[in-house]
Amino acid sequence: MSILVYIEQFDGKAAPVSWEVLGKARGLADQMGGKLAAVVIGNGVEAVAKDAVSYGADVVHLVEDASLAAFRMDPYAAVVEDLVKAHSPKVVLFPATARGRDLSAVVACDLNAGLAADCSDLSLADGGLAAVRPVFSGNLLTTVLFNGPLAVASVRPRSFPTPEANPGRAGEILKSGPVAPATGIREEIKSFEVTGTGEVSLTDAKIIVSGGRGVAKDPDLGFKLVKELADTLGGAMGASRAAVDAGYIPYKHQVGQTGKVVRPDLYIANGISGAIQHLAGMGNAKIIVAV
Amino acid sequence: MNFVVCVKQTPDTAELPKISAAEAVSGDIKATLVLNPWDEFAVEEALLLEDRFGGDVTVVTVGPEKATEALKDAIARGVKSAVLLDDPAFAGSDAWGTAAILTAAIKKNGAADVILTGKMSVDGNSGLVAPGLARKLGATLLTQVTKIVDISGGKITVERQLEEGRETITASLPAVVSVSKEINEPRYPSFMGIRKAAKASIPAWKLADLGLSASEVGAGAAKANWTDVRKPPARASHVVLVKEATVEATAAKLADLLMAEKVI
Ligand SMILES: Cc1cc2nc3c(=O)[nH]c(=O)nc-3n(C[C@H](O)[C@H](O)[C@H](O)COP(=O)(O)OP(=O)(O)OC[C@H]3O[C@@H](n4cnc5c(N)ncnc54)[C@H](O)[C@@H]3O)c2cc1C
Ligand SMILES: Nc1ncnc2c1ncn2[C@@H]1O[C@H](COP(=O)(O)O)[C@@H](O)[C@H]1O
Predict the structure, then answer these.
(1) pLDDT at position A1 over 80
(2) pLDDT tens digits for B12-47?
(3) Which of residues 97-136 of B touch A (CB under 8 A)?
(4) Are B197 and B79 in contact (CB under 8 A)?
(5) Rounded Cα distance, B75 and B193, in Å
(6) Taking a C-beta distance cutoff of 8 angstroms, is the pair B75, B199 a contact?
(7) Which residue of A237, A246, B60, B74 lies most exposed, with the fewest beta carbons within 10 A?
(8) pLDDT value for A201
(9) Are A134 and A116 in contact, with CB atoms under 8 Å apart?
């Protein structure tokens, strides 16, 4: 195995960035002349494993158990670490979602491997991974190089295109069960309140319509118009911190330095002045419209 | 109950664009340095926990002597005890090195129940110190925390905001909690606090004080190395002012332009 990719799923649905990472990893594995493996963890998630094959994995490790139905760090990390120890990939990649980021860090730390978080590009240099990531809040870039036999990286959504799915592709699905973590399982999920169903996630969105303090005269109408346009275009709704601080819209919509970093094809900013801290979150949009 | 807050001194976000690649590499940054904005929430939460559950709060940072100012900022907000972790051997540590230094310091300070961190540093942008610390300390890891519901019976219950929704989770202590912006409204340093901070004498612990060896930390131990630090390629930007006789005509023109770019 040359590369292992962690496929993140919630409720049986894969996070779209997983496929973007897998598509990029396919190219890297071919360059390395090695196999591309994926790992899918959950319960009743075989469909996700099949999708991983159609998106380019040679081998998919499907690890299912009732105890793995919801993400918890200790049992999930144990599974990934066990696979890495058994198959010694050179590179392990994760989607840079909230859970993917944490899992990548725990696995890399436990295995004493270098980690580059939130990468925006990946390539090979001298046979090893070279991972490009923004630092200083997007004001600088660095290429992270690794010491040691294993390199770990998490990849930002929309850094790579979604590969073409090929449902006829051949690949092996290997099923296994949970691995007991050395720490025991120390977390118990009491409840999970799904919010934002039906909403397009900001980080995955191709189109984002945002509102800022410029709607102060009538914030309710302003954000109603922002939402209408976002819905019409099939996009997500964003906001500046000024709008969030003023209570016009919840924090989860905030774009910027202390909000989400997004990379849509189209970003429509309404009544937003374009402060440095706002630009840090959306400066890489392909087209920006300022109203 | 013992609470530890890990803070970092980082450049003022308004001055980040002025920082050159050379400054970032040498660490000799000319911009104004402040308490990492995310860490204000961690400091505030520690003070709130002190009020709710009793106990002591200690603020720690790995950094040069100048980073004492970030500790003083926390003291000015009400934290009573602070430690600077400074040794030439620490220079060039990656996240795991920093986590190893913090782990040793937390152990030396006495067993901590809850260790608080910010979500990420505005310079390193990695968000790796909290997970590194949790694993090295053998503590549970709770990130994206928007509310600490309870701490009792050796357990902590928190709410976390994840992509799909809000999770309520109970985990065993000790725990490393990285807080989200929604968790509180940080207080400002008070006048009395600033005077107290100015007079505070802050101990500095070195490599030997922490019982670490030089091979475990610093540039030599780093597994991930920043190379080729550079300004991002300048955006080939091209600005178009869309202004027609009426709002409707302006909107129609804009829609045409966006369709021509194939983004809608
Ligand atoms: C540590 C730190 C972190 C920060 N993090 C973030 C962050 O994550 N995200 C973020 O956004 N900000 C962040 N900020 C705040 C940032 O500096 C700005 O204050 C904020 O982005 C301003 O929001 P705004 O553009 O909505 O408001 P303003 O700057 O007040 O801009 C309002 C704009 O609306 C225009 N306007 C007014 N009326 C109309 C109208 N009728 N039609 C059209 N336009 C109109 C005005 O001309 C102006 O351009 C941060 C600041 C700090 C110090
Ligand atoms: N040098 C440091 N000393 C103490 N705490 C740190 C240091 N660097 C990072 N942290 C903590 O870890 C959090 C995440 O930082 P980072 O992993 O660098 O993005 C910060 O918000 C701090 O709470």
Answers:
(1) no
(2) 999 999 999 999 999 999 999 999 999 999 999 999
(3) 99, 122-128, 131-132, 134-136
(4) no
(5) 7
(6) no
(7) A246
(8) 87
(9) no
Which of A91-95, A263-267, B4-8, B237-241 bottoms out in mean pLDDT, i.e. has the lowest? B237-241
How many angstroms separate the CA atoms of A144 and B191, rounded? 43
Q: How many CB atoms lie within 10 A of CB B244?
A: 12
Closest CA–CA distance from residue B201 to any residue of chain A (Å): 31
- Structure tokens of A278? 């706002």
Subunit contact B168:A113, Cβ cutoff 8 A = no
Contact A209, A230 (CB under 8 A): yes
Tokens of A121: 């590009």
- C-alpha–C-alpha distance, residues A278 and A48, integer Å: 36
Q: Looking at the CA of residue B36, tell me the nearest atom of ligand 2.
A: 21
Residue type, A22: L
Measuring CA to CA, which residue among A151, A6, A102, A8 is closest to residue B131?
A: A102
Distance from CA of B138 to the nearest CA of A (A): 8
> Which pair of structure tokens corresponds to residue B261?
């770019």
Is the reported ipTM for this assembly greater than 0.85? yes
Structure tokens given for B164: 């799909």
Residue scoring higher pLDDT (A196 or B194): B194
Share of chain A above pLDDT 90, in %: 96
Query: B112: closest CA among B62, B61, B177?
Result: B177
Q: What residues pair up with B177 in beta bridges, in sequence order? A: B116, B142
Q: Is the minimum CB–CB distance between B235 and chain A shorter than 8 Å?
A: yes
Confidence of residue A127 (pLDDT cuts 50, 70, 90): confident
Dump pLDDT digits (tens) for B39-79: 999 999 999 999 999 999 999 999 999 999 999 999 999 99
Question: Whose structure tokens read 């010491």?
Answer: A147
Mean pLDDT to the nearest integer, A282-291: 95
N-to-C CA span, chain A: 50
Using alpha carbons, select from A76, A142, A124, A134 the residue that is nearest to residue A283.
A134
Q: What length does chain A have?
A: 291
